[in-house]
Amino acid sequence: MADISPATEATAISLRGVHKHFGALRAVDGVDLDIRTGEILGLIGHNGAGKSTLFKLMLGLETPSAGAILIDGIPVRGRAFRAVRRGIGFLPESVVLYDNLDGLETLRFFARLKGAPLAQCAQLLEQVGLNHAGKRPVREYSKGMRQRLGFAQALLGKPRVLFLDEPTNGLDPEAIRDFYVVLRQLQAAGTTIVITSHILAELQGRVDRLAIMAAGKLLAVGSVQDLRERTALPLVIEADLDAADLATVAAALQELAPAPETTPTGLRWHCPRQHKMAALAALGAQNARVHDLRLLEPSLEDMFFGLSR
């Protein structure tokens, strides 16, 4: 499937005709995708859509049945990929840590495995908000604290490419906000980030592009606005009106949008996208009757279900 956004930037990860079959199951079924250097890409799909398998293929943990995957221009699974792998960070969906180690010891353990500087460990604990708990054993950590420690582990060695599988599991709203602040800092430094999440509202406005998967295939790739235009879902217009003006204002839009719904404060229309500006102009002509106006674009959840059905 061709990317609907122009690929002008350098490519960090390239997938061409990638398949992964487990017997009769086509977990990944002919994926073509370019992930740009320094972008945050959200990978979304139903359970069983193929997201986790695609992650494993890009990490070199699974071998594709067919197709090619390159990271920084180097084929995954080859000898040369060993050096590239040192520049990759990964946070799995289920973080498994050693309960008897404390937070700082945990990072030092993974740093030695990865060949990352030990001096970086204390800095990372502070970056993910665990500086106060660095000497506490991991068995005393809450789920959210374990998740943050797993994130710190993924950041060891200052990775050029970062794979994050459901990274905000167990995090409270403040921790989620701080997590995305760190992601933007990493992006500003040139890190390429691929992230999956079942919380679609969380990704909206926080990723540069989205890739939607279903049954092992890529259904669409693009920015939120690209996907809105592709799905052609109607937007919602809400107007606050006096009861005496409902019929008059509804008549002004009768040729542009389906019959409105009555709300406690006025009217709501599901307006076809191509009529948006004309509908707003018609409502503008009724400004003496309209007390307030709200324009609601389709959410990422709306677009996901519109594309994946």
Descriptive account of the structure:
- This protein is of the alpha/beta class.
- The protein has a domain at 232-308: Alpha-Beta Plaits (2-Layer Sandwich), CATH 3.30.70.
- It is 32% helix and 28% strand.
- The chain is built from eleven helices and 14 strands.
- The protein has helices spanning 51-59, 81-85, 103-114, 120-127, 143-154, 173-188, 200-203, 224-231, 246-252, 276-284, 300-308, and strands at 11-22, 25-36, 40-45, 66-71, 74-75, 88-91, 161-165, 192-196, 209-214, 217-222, 235-241, 261-263, 266-271, 290-296.
- The strands form three sheets. A six-stranded mixed sheet has the order 6-7-8-3-9-10, sandwiched between helices. A four-stranded antiparallel sheet has the order 2-1-4-5, with helices on one face.
- A hairpin with a 2-residue loop joins strand 9 (209-214) and strand 10 (217-222).
- The radius of gyration is 24 Å and the shape is globular.
- Mean pLDDT is 91; it is low at 1-8.
Number of DSSP E strands: 14
Strand order in space, largest sheet: 6-7-8-3-9-10
Return the structural class. Answer: alpha/beta
Look at the structure and give the mean pLDDT. 91
* Largest β-sheet summary: 6 strands, mixed
Helix content: 25-40%
SSE topology string: EEEHEEHEHHHEHEHEEHEHEEHEH
Radius of gyration: 24 Å
Intertermini distance: 17 Å
CATH architecture type of the domain at 232-308: 2-Layer Sandwich
Helix segment tally: 11
CATH class of the domain at 232-308: Alpha Beta
Which topology of the domain at 232-308 does CATH recognise?
Alpha-Beta Plaits
Query: What overall geometry do the principal axes of the alpha carbons give?
Result: globular
Proportion of strand residues: 25-35%
